[in-house]
Amino acid sequence: MATLMPIVIHILSGSVSLSGYRFYRRDSLGRGGGVGLYVRSLISCRVFDDLLLSGECEQLWITFRLLHFNIAVGVFYRPPSGSFAAFMSNFEINLSRVSLMYDYVTILGDFNLDLLNDSNGTVNQFLALIESYNFTQIINEPSRVTAATATLLDLILVSDVDRVRSHSVKPMLLLHCWI
């Protein structure tokens, strides 16, 4: 249903259109970037602005109802230069709200935290936070690979791992892989 991709403000949505999908985007208010999400055209959904918090990240939330379940999908980009403490505070508010309001939640994005580096205190703090809200991070291989490094920055967090049919990391020509 969803793919994370960086968005540049001067790129028109029509130039990244995919047949059978609607493209939702939230452009960065700062320098470059933004977030976007493809949703199948058959799914009736809405942008959920109530979860937008000022803070150290860019985010977009889409909500929809499938069968009798309320579902939320959030897309995040956390710039590496932003305040980690401010991000964590805002992210915890989001987690607490969506956990109460929706039956199933998926959050994906570039969090700029290398989860392969579990000796990093910020990584452990982030993992403890998502686990405290019963989210599971399902990507377990590098999502950014260069000649010198391999890091896991692009994550998919789910509230019910048993509902995940498949996931993968696909190589890209750009800096980050598709998740």
TrEMBL record:
<protein>
    <recommendedName>
        <fullName>Endonuclease/exonuclease/phosphatase domain-containing protein</fullName>
    </recommendedName>
</protein>
<dbReference type="InterPro" id="IPR036691">
    <property type="entry name" value="Endo/exonu/phosph_ase_sf"/>
</dbReference>
